[in-house]
């Protein structure tokens, strides 16, 4: 049996190296028998970092352009999961498996500009000191190696196409939905139920930012991969 390829996609303010490689997730998946690679979204990691919000109008198209030619198992976290969902609905034949982590039922709700402004205020140091979510986003976005102006442009990008239950219902691949019970995006029941072949894993005592390298997430991911692709 040929080795399956797992593509890892980070969230806003992260990168393949910081989100998946440094914590050892890539090593664990490789030891489980998978070929592991990653994609840095535009504005992050080793990708180009334009400061014009219009450059980020089609992150799903950018993701599709960076994928290997053969179908892959793709794992997305937060912004990476949102981008992956849009890419998969657009080109389902590119994916033989999908994992969405750090996103929940809020994906079906209209874009909320006030939430974007909340993150921007944290990134730009304007947040109320009592707003812990904004403060955490600010710390995350201002880590070494990041370009805060590019990350702000990502947040100010034009609205992407909506994620709908009807669109997700066309994705027949095995799909893992993983969400921490302390994640601000919790819950994910509606998201999981919209996907025909989904497994929902609720990660105990796990907040949003801790998700990618939490033991409960890694265990769930490895188990799901082994059950469906080995």
Any idea what the shape is?
globular
Mean pLDDT: 96
Q: Which structural class is indicated by helix and strand composition? A: alpha/beta
SS element count, helices: 10
Number of strands: 6
Order of helices and strands: EHHEHEHEHHHHEHEH
Proportion of strand residues: 15-25%
**What is the first-to-last residue Cα distance?**
8 Å
Strand order of the largest sheet: 2-1-3-4-5-6
What quaternary form is this?
Answer: single chain
What is the C-alpha radius of gyration, as a whole number of Å? Answer: 16 Å
Percent range of helical residues: 25-40%
Detail the poorly predicted runs. none
Mind summarizing the main beta sheet?
6 strands, parallel
What is this entry, summarized?
The protein is of the alpha/beta class and 230 residues long.
């Amino acid at each position: 049996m040929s080795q399956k390829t797992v593509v890892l996609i980070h969230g806003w303010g992260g990168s393949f190296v910081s989100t998946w490689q440094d914590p050892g997730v890539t090593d664990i998946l490789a030891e489980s028998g998978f070929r592991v690679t990653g994609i840095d979204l535009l504005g992050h990691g080793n990708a180009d970092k334009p400061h014009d919000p219009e450059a980020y109008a089609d992150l799903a198209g950018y993701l599709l352009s960076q994928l290997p030619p053969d179908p892959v198992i793709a794992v997305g976290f937060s912004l990476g999961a949102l981008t992956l969902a849009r890419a998969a609905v657009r080109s389902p034949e590119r994916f033989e498996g999908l994992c969405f982590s750090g996103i929940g039922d809020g994906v079906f709700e209209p874009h909320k500009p006030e939430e974007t402004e909340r993150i921007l205020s944290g990134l730009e140091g304007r947040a109320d000191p009592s707003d812990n979510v904004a403060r955490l986003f600010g710390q995350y976005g201002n880590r070494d190696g990041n370009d805060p102006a590019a990350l702000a442009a990502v947040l100010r990008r034009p609205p992407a196409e909506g994620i709908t239950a009807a669109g997700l219902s066309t994705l027949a691949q095995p799909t893992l939905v993983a969400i921490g019970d302390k994640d601000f995006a919790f819950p994910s029941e509606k998201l999981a139920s919209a996907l025909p072949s989904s497994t929902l894993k609720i990660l105990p005592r796990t907040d949003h930012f801790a998700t990618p390298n939490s033991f409960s997430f890694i265990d769930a991911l490895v188990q799901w991969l082994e059950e469906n692709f080995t």
